[in-house]
Amino acid sequence: MTPFGLLTVVWFGNVAHVGQIVTVYLVQSIRCSHSLTSPSCLFCSARGVPLSGHVGFDSMPDQLVNKSVNHGFCFNILCVGETGLGKSTLMDTLFNTKFEGEPTQHNQPGVQLKSNTYELQESNVRLKLTVVNTVGFGDQINKEDSYKSIVEFIDTQFEAYLQEELKIKRTLHSYHDTRIHACLYFIAPTGHSLKSLDLVTMKKLDSKVNIIPIIAKSDAISKSELTKFKIKITSELVSNGVQIYQFPTDDETVAEINSTMNGHLPFAVVGSTEEVKIGNKMVRARQYPWGTVQVENENHCDFVKLREMLIRVNMEDLREQTHTRHYELYRRCKLEEMGFKDTDPDSKPFSLQETYEAKRNEFMGELQKKEEEMRQMFVQRVKEKEAELKEAEKELHEKFDRLKKLHQDEKKKLEDKKKSLDDELNGFKQKKTAAELLQAQTQQAGSSATLKKDKERKK
């Protein structure tokens, strides 16, 4: 430690004042071995020298800001809610733009998640915004498994990031982070209570994503009903153990506003991209026969509160919570499933190589065990097949013997019949020959009698 400090003094000692500053800084950062201050110790004697002048490390925040601005930011929003609650309209209103998209139908066989990424820029800050919409959510008759597609999608994004983290050659600085940072859960403005589908889905998602519940199309119910509806929703979430995202109050600069806004959850919002002239200026609003609802009027809805909390105040905290809480929970569970732990039973740090070797040996043992089971199963099946083939062969031989015997019997019958027919044919031939002989004799006798009569007549 001492040579390093002395070398540093010599290296930076070209300028006496700067060398003194750097030397004091390095000396103060080195822990001395003396229990008490020793006058003979260089470090003890230098410990009291005050730091003076400007070094420049106070520009670190500016450097980080410039680096972040050059690199750009990404933010991913998951919109969960039934079809027709105005999810796409609210996204257009939040970011003051018109995102491309097609209206969804109500005849989806299941819940499908569609992700669209947009490049936005405000001043000199670039934002890669990803909006994920749940197509067909709540449209099925049986809604029991509606949340599964959403949970699988969130886990898939966590798994993709984890796989990138576990690579030998990582590119996290240029990796497009698709993990969901905020989940806007759209609640239908029924004015009564939460649906079972809403409670089940939020309960399944609260450990995986930052849930911000909002009442969609809040202009559909009166102010008194809306206040009661908010209280009812909050009590139901607490009684069912659903953990929604709470705006952080540990930072003094935003503690007061976040604490106030936590009391306004869930936000009652209205979305619109149409501009209406109110007085001398154009504002975004929804026009009805009975009047006009201004989107950015806090007396009409909580849209401004939502925009302030989601984008202008807590966007970075949402990103941080996603990484430090939800992703870390997924990562820990996944690595524990793979057999990795921080400490062994003796509270000693685990060696990654030892853990890998142990897991590899365990895997190889299981593989050999399965291979032996498959071999035995294969041998057993071969024996069973051989027995089946032998039985089939035996049956074929028996069938062949039966057919052979039947053939011999039929052949013998045919031969006997043929012999009988031959005997009959020989008898017939003999009778025919005798008949022909008799006929010839008769004809000869007749001819002789005729000749004799002719002779007698001539005489």
From TrEMBL:
The keyword GTP-binding applies. Residues 440-450 have a biased composition (Low complexity). Residues 440-459 are annotated as: Disordered. InterPro entries: G_SEPTIN_dom, P-loop_NTPase, Septin. Keywords: Coiled coil, GTP-binding, Nucleotide-binding, Signal. Residues 1-21 form the signal peptide. Residues 353-431 form a coiled coil. It comes from the Eukaryota. One of its GO terms (molecular function) is GTP binding. Residues 71-337 form the Septin-type G domain. Belongs to the TRAFAC class TrmE-Era-EngA-EngB-Septin-like GTPase superfamily. Septin GTPase family. This is Septin. It comes from Cyprinus carpio.
